[in-house]
Amino acid sequence: MFKMSKIILSFLLFSGVLFGQDGETEEKKEPEYGWNNNIVFNFNFTQNSFDNWSQGGESSWAWQTDLKAKFINDQANYNWANSGKLSYGKAKVGDLDARKAADKRADDDISHEQLHAPQ
After folding, report:
1. Running DSSP on this structure, what letter comes out for residue 9?
2. Out of 11-20, 24-33, 59-68, 94-103, least confident range
3. What are the Cα distances from residue 15, in Å, to 23, 91, 113, 118?
4. How is the chain split into domains, by residue range?
5. What does the alpha-carbon distance between residue 92 and residue 62 come to, in Å, rounded to a whole number?
6. Vertex 101, ends 95 and 106: CA angle to 5°?
7. Model's pTM, two decimal places?
8. pLDDT, tens digit, for every residue of 18-62?
9. Which residues fall within 8 angstroms of residue 63, CB to CB, at 6 or more apart?
10. Residue 18: in which H helix or E strand, if any?
11. What pLDDT sits at residue 116?
């Protein structure tokens, strides 16, 4: 058993050396101009339930949704980037009514960078 684990460990350690590098060199690519868009959406839900719990504590639930977006326009002479975040959630603890737990309406960053062409 010990000998088998040594063989597996040796294989895992040396497999990076065998397969980790490619002998071919990359060709120089032309820069890609245009819009690069990225949107990420998350939804999280959590629930706790206590029944006959002598230590105390209350049952609860919470949810939150997040939306993050980034739009970048790369051109030869300028870059333009826009980003924003939106987050909202509610939580309910015990017999209390549900309350707002997260509220990030907008966090926009707009930037414009003028690049000078070489002369």
Report:
1. H
2. 11-20
3. 16, 48, 45, 46
4. 33-52+59-119
5. 6
6. 155
7. 0.56
8. 555 555 666 788 878 899 999 999 999 999 988 877 777 788 999
9. 43, 44, 45, 46, 89, 90, 91
10. helix 2-19
11. 57
Which amino acid appears at position 32 of this protein? E
Q: How far apart are CA 53 and CA 58, in angstroms?
A: 9
**Other CB atoms within 10 Å distance of the CB of residue 89:** 19
Q: Left, alpha or beta for 2 (phi > 0: left; psi -120 to 50: alpha)?
A: alpha
SS3 content of the chain, % helix, strand, coil (to 5): 15, 50, 35
Helix, strand, or coil here: 56?
coil
* Structure-token pair, residue 55: 């230590």
Token pair belonging to 86 = 């939106």
